[in-house]
């Protein structure tokens, strides 16, 4: 405990902690949330552009459009790992993230200038490289500020922002339909111009507002700064930005941890189910409505998903649990995959589409919380683990983009996603058994058993603090 807190009572420290968390929430969460909305809008606006004529204007086939969707991840996925290794070693992660926002906004706006399918592929691949900084970087950044009991709801806030970005993106795209032909510019071109320029402007403002790490943040008083550092240090043994563990050593430690390999496979299966977002306007359009109406109908499922995410992570934080949430979401998603394959009834199909966004993506929230709590130290290992899970898991978005053919029932897509869900449930159940075995070894007090856990990725300092694998 720092000297500035030693003379304070437990009640005074709790009050100071409440004020600190409130302050962090009021400053950091709105900035990260807004940037993630922009991130998702700029990534998913091609799905809306499909309904605004981009396929016709660029003479694209359905297969070529799927490639244009998936090629973003060719740049997005491999660059997440070096980016997160960089962010774990620099003192200004906030500025680093905001610079990436400005760059991807510029690239997104330039999509309006493409004239051929090849040019679209090139711009999308470069956009993926720029956007690779944000999501794993934001998760790592939040885990540097929040304790394990606080992190879940903050990750949920990110996903809520994602869903509101999806909802707003659909509504915004529907409005831009009316600009078609203005100044000789097609509606889909206006979509990229307006959304890309908005991203550049907002990213520039956030660069001056976004704090850095707790130990060097200018938004905190000296006492608050020491408390913010101590909160994290007391849980996992070292404060953010204070360890000297080498970047590549942390990377190698992450790869040698079998728990990470299991979590990567789980996220691979989970992200395959999340690929539904790339084609959600198309799925809704299969109900038989016009392009504008289809875009408007995409908003309610995303708004509902945002609210459910908050409930799921509130429950996860309150009960310190993850496994029941994952299994519950998987079971729900399986039922919803069956409905559009089994019936053409519009009401039943739209009901399934109301549920699928949160049921298919919900497990990812607790997976990212698991990664940042179970692979906490050293920080370079956690940064690498977060990027590896998102990067390798995200490859599902490449192959899953080719599943959405043969409307309106999309047998290949929904059948494959159901298979992924079942395999995900089996794998996460094995992970539950594995970490519970490690906890039994830690609780045994036997030096030989504890040595096996340390070899599996837990540090000696974490053992001395009484650390355990929680939530499973």
Automatic annotation (TrEMBL):
PROSITE patterns: MFS. It comes from the Eukaryota. Keywords: Membrane, Transmembrane, Transmembrane helix, Transport. It is a multi-pass membrane protein. The keyword Transport applies. Pfam families: MFS_1. Gene3D superfamilies: MFS general substrate transporter like domains (1.20.1250.20). Residues 28-439 form the Major facilitator superfamily (MFS) profile domain. Its main location: membrane. The chain crosses the membrane at residues 20-41, 61-81, 93-114, 120-143, 155-178, 190-210, 260-280, 292-315, 322-344, 350-371, 383-404, 410-431. One of its GO terms (cellular component) is membrane. GO terms for molecular function: transmembrane transporter activity. It is found in: Membrane. The keyword Ribonucleoprotein does not apply. InterPro entries: MFS (IPR011701), MFS_dom (IPR020846), MFS_trans_sf (IPR036259). This is MFS general substrate transporter. It comes from Aaosphaeria arxii CBS 175.79.
